[in-house]
Write a structure and sequence with these properties.
Keywords: Heme, Iron, Membrane, Metal-binding, Oxidoreductase, Transmembrane, Transmembrane helix. It holds the Pfam family p450. Its cofactor is heme. It comes from Sorghum bicolor (Sorghum). There is one protein chain. Helix 15 packs antiparallel against helix 18. The chain has one domain: Cytochrome p450 (Orthogonal Bundle), CATH 1.10.630.10. It has a six-stranded mixed β-sheet with strand order 1-2-3-9-6-4, with helices on both faces. Strands 5-13-10 form a three-stranded antiparallel β-sheet. A two-stranded antiparallel ribbon has the order 7-8. The longest helix has about 30 residues. The radius of gyration is 23 Å and the shape is globular. It is of the alpha+beta class. The protein has 21 helices and 13 strands.
Length: about 500
């Protein structure tokens, strides 16, 4: 019998316990011979992480308050976790070449991420980074994506308006909205998930979420390969999810190639990322195949869909619990977009959301950034140590160890943010004149830093600001159940574990 999603089976726990205890004793005995190396304190084993899988973020927060750097023992290596900004800077920038994804990260995520930018090192990473860097810097993509975000935000506002005063699941609407918009930007295809017109798109979205959860679970399950070989437990569902994802994506790619064959000159004018990659491939047919295209675009989708939808969901959740902040954001949007004059509908409002208007919304930017501090889209990130090393805090790292920096836990550390670290306070990001002031990317790590810093940072902020500005200008949101709280689903991105039921009422 399968255990509930995200929970280890009894057999897995017993086997993991025996194996980890044996290896822990052997590793401890071996460490005794390294007299000049100081290792991070052992806070537990992979077994403890499996037991706490449903509350993994809180569990690691508790440990991080005790040990700013600690390790968990696994059958093959140590998992090292840190919230020290100096360590983060060291692994992401100073000694970047010694910390990469490595073979283990690639193997665990390969079914979903393939050879995409989030799971590779070396030549493949450099190629994708170069191409992506070029694409994100072009005015063509900026203008095209902004238009898509405006259109989708207006469509979303229409759906919310139709259900004003009713019970609405905003997380579901935001996930559907961002999937529609990011798929349009990435593939040049309107899925119709927001309107509910595409069953295939909805199936793709569910499969994508389920596969993402299982990838995270694999990091903590030493027997996942055996389960995959035996087609057992959650690995059975993983195969189904990946099949659904691949069938959908390859159908889109094939259709694009067919369109390209009919009219190459017209096709070359298209602005979506897949079309631009296909045009590039025409000039160098051997540069990548359809599988590589699938991997590149899927990594783009996970970066642009899950992250922004999750952040906007947490943003609305905290604003429902802080109505004065919600009203302050709405007032700023009204002043910046319309100079405070008149009431606009969604179509007129989105036309006013120019770069200049969005740039004036410092409080909105601060509120979104504060959301990312407490609810980072990627709550934990991992690098593989390629050779024995010592971190700036003096702790040793062995070749093959997996080093994790923890954006979620870092956002809750008082030694970094003060006594009010767990309080939602956008003002901490503003100077005396109300202008946004950024923090070090090694302290606020929501977008990584160093050579792998997120290329889509401004892209993501623009999408989130447009969606947030439209929603808060037009509506006031409150929790459907005033006493309700929400948790998260343990997966690669920090997504809520259930619906975000709210009541939306028109502001005017």
């Amino acid at each position: 019998m399968d255990s509930p999603p995200g929970q280890p089976t009894v057999v897995t726990l017993i086997l993991a316990l025996l194996l980890v205890l044996y290896l822990a004793l052997r590793r401890r005995a071996g460490a005794g011979g390294a007299k000049n190396r100081s290792y991070p304190p052992v806070a537990g084993t992979v077994l403890h992480q499996l037991f706490n899988f449903g509350r993994l973020m809180e569990y690691h927060t508790e440990l991080s308050r005790r040990y700013r750097t600690f390790r968990m023992l696994t059958p093959s290596s140590s998992y090292i976790y840190t919230v020290e900004p100096a360590n983060v800077e060291y692994i992401l920038k100073t000694n970047f070449s010694n910390y990469g994804k490595g073979s283990k990260v690639h193997e665990v995520g390969e079914d979903l991420l393939g050879d995409g930018i989030f799971s590779v090192d070396g030549a493949k990473w450099r190629h994708q980074r170069k191409v992506a860097s070029h694409e994100f810097s072009t005015r063509v993509l900026r203008d095209y994506s902004t238009g898509v975000f405006r259109d989708t935000a207006a469509e979303l506002a229409g759906i919310v308006a139709a259900d004003a005063g009713e019970k609405v699941d905003m997380q579901d609407l935001l996930l559907r909205s961002t999937l529609d918009s990011i798929f349009t930007v990435g593939f040049g295809v309107r899925l119709g998930v927001l309107s509910g017109s595409s069953k295939e798109g909805a199936a793709f979205a569910k499969a994508f979420d389920d596969a993402s959860e299982q990838v995270l679970h694999r990091f903590l399950d030493p027997f996942w390969k055996a389960k995959r070989f035996l087609n057992f437990s959650l690995e059975t569902a993983m195969k189904r999810s990946v099949r659904t994802i691949n069938d959908f994506v390859y159908a889109v790619v094939d259709k694009k190639i067919e369109q390209m064959g009919r009219d190459q000159q017209e096709f070359a004018k298209k602005e979506d990322i897949l079309s631009r990659f296909l045009v590039e491939r025409e000039s160098d047919p051997g540069c990548f195949d359809n599988k590589y295209l699938r991997d590149i675009i899927l990594n783009f989708v996970i970066a642009g869909r899950d992250t922004t939808a999750g952040t906007l969901s947490w943003f609305l959740y905290v604003l429902c619990r802080n109505q004065h902040i919600q009203d302050k954001v709405a007032e700023e949007v009204r002043a910046a977009a319309t100079s405070g004059d008149g009431d606009l509908g969604a179509p007129e409002l989105v036309a006013c959301l120019t770069d200049d208007a969005i740039g004036k919304m410092h409080y909105l930017h601060a509120a979104l950034t504060e959301t990312l501090r407490l609810y980072p889209a990627v709550p934990i990130d991992v690098k593989c140590c390629f050779s024995d090393d010592t971190l700036p805090d003096g702790y040793a790292v062995n070749k093959g160890d997996m080093v994790h920096y923890q954006p979620y836990q870092m956002g809750r550390m008082q030694f970094l943010w003060g006594a009010d670290a767990e309080e939602f306070r956008p003002e901490r990001w503003l100077d005396d004149g109300g202008v946004f002031v950024p923090e070090s990317p090694f302290k606020f790590t929501a977008f990584q830093a160093g050579p792998r810093v997120c290329l889509g940072k401004e892209f993501a902020y623009r999408q989130m600001k447009i969606f947030a500005a439209v929603l808060l200008y037009l509506f006031r949101f409150e929790m459907w159940d005033a006493n309700a709280t929400v948790g998260y689903r343990a997966m690669l991105t920090l997504k809520m574990d259930g619906p975000l039921y709210v009541r939306a009422s028109l502001r005017r």
